[in-house]
Every structure is written in C-alpha cells, then in structure tokens.
C-alpha cells in the first residue's frame, strides 16, 4: 500500500487490474478493473494495486509523480541488495 501527493487516474489498456483502498493489502477487498476500466484516486488516498497476469495500465496526473509507501520496507528503491 502507498499514496501519492497528486491525484492519479488509471486506465486499464489490457488485462485486469485490481485496486484496493487502505493501509493493508487485502486481495478480497480489491475492486476489479477490466480492460477499458478507469479509476480516479485523489491525492493522499492510501491504496494498493495488483494483477494476476499480463496487464497494461496507463497512469496519468499532474507531476511531479511520487510514491510514499505505508510500510517503508516495501519501497523497492530502498531494498537491500
């Protein structure tokens, strides 16, 4: 789970994207977005997303784009090598 400072708009180009809200990852609580699906998230909305297969998603919004992870250990930029 993470959040962005700015609003974010998601459009599923192909495949299926699952989006959930909150600070805890819960597959059962996620909303299904099929190909062609759209979802708007306001800035600072805590959320998570996942797929079960190949999926192409277009993400748009006003920059700069940032990601703040609820659990800092989930941040791949800070992963220990």
Characterise this structure:
By secondary structure, the protein is mainly β. Helix content is 0%, strand content 40%. It has no helices and 8 strands. Strands 5-2-7 form a 3-stranded antiparallel beta sheet, with no helix packed on it. It has a 3-stranded antiparallel beta sheet with strand order 4-3-6, with no helix packed on it. Strands 1-8 form a two-stranded antiparallel ribbon.
At a glance:
The model has no long low-confidence stretch (mean pLDDT 94). The protein contains no helices and eight strands.
String of helices and strands: EEEEEEEE
Strand content: 35-45%
- Terminal-residue CA separation: 22 Å
Q: Largest sheet, if any?
A: 3 strands, antiparallel
Mean pLDDT figure: 94
Helix content: under 10%
How are the strands of the largest sheet arranged?
5-2-7
Low-confidence stretches: none
Taking all Cα atoms into account, the compactness measure Rg is: 13 Å
Coarse structural class: mainly beta
What best-fitting shape do the alpha-carbon axes yield? Answer: globular
Count the E strands.
Answer: 8
Number of helices: 0
